[in-house]
Design goal:
239 residues; alpha/beta; six-stranded mixed β-sheet
């Protein structure tokens, strides 16, 4: 996916607030690109524009050599499940290939560790389990690319760490491109094959971590060095 010259502004209290200011970004169709930035820097706006939930003031989003970026699956900060539907019905919500429903469901339940919870309703699930359902629902759409907007931010430390490793396992199996938004440096280092810092409405410096194997030891000398570099870079933006 290729993003060029993306601009987006909002009218707030009678003044124009420019959130994205000519943003350029290339997203690989494999790997996990993490957009890292502080709250309010435009991360969610970027995802909403890519997903087609909002319209840009200027710029283009294409599928590289193709004008169409393809099918986009979105996972929000909250699971946004239908409370009156069971797990299996939430997963298959919107799936049109009815003859393949059972096969798709069985595969996704196994992939996301939800076997045995097919008939459960959202209120009976933990936060981590609800996000598993949200991920399975996004995958049932058979997207070409996944957008994830801080999906683990509301989880406790232990559940968040578990879900990060689950995402890496699922990504290895599905091999879909992912754009993952977070304000956590540790999460970015845990998941990212590429980290891009979003600040002042544009994508600043990027870091290629494609050569760093998973799972990653964030206490290793190499990862601590990378964390220090990211912190210093972000501090520069904040000055």
């Amino acid at each position: 996916m290729r993003i060029r010259g993306l601009r987006k502004s909002y009218q707030v209290s009678g003044r124009c607030l420019e959130v994205l200011k000519g943003l350029d970004l290339d997203l690989a169709d494999e790997g996990i690109t993490v957009v890292l930035g502080r709250s309010g820097c435009g991360k969610t706006t970027l995802l909403r524009l890519i997903a087609g939930l909002e319209t840009a003031d200027w710029g283009e989003i294409t599928g590289g050599e193709m004008t169409d970026p393809g099918k986009i699956g979105v996972i929000f900060q909250e699971p946004r499940l239908m409370p009156w539907l069971t797990v299996e019905k939430n997963i298959l919500f919107g799936v049109k290939k009815k003859r393949q429903d059972r096969e798709t469901l069985s595969y996704l339940l196994a992939l996301t560790g939800l076997i045995g919870f097919e008939k459960a309703r959202p209120f009976q699930l933990s936060g981590g389990m609800q996000q598993r359902v949200a991920l399975a629902r996004a995958l049932a759409y058979e997207p070409d690319f996944l957008l994830m907007d801080e999906p683990f931010a509301a989880l406790d430390y232990f559940t968040r760490a578990q879900m990060q490793q689950e995402l890496l396992r699922i990504h290895q199996k599905e091999n879909k491109g992912i754009l993952f938004v977070t304000h956590s440096i540790e999460e970015a280092l845990t998941l990212g094959t590429k980290i891009v810092i979003l600040e002042n409405g544009i994508c600043g410096k990027s870091y290629d971590l494609g050569d760093v194997a998973f799972p990653r030891d964030l206490l290793s000398e190499e990862m601590l060095s990378r964390k220090r570099e990211l912190i210093l870079r972000i501090e520069e933006y904040c000055q």
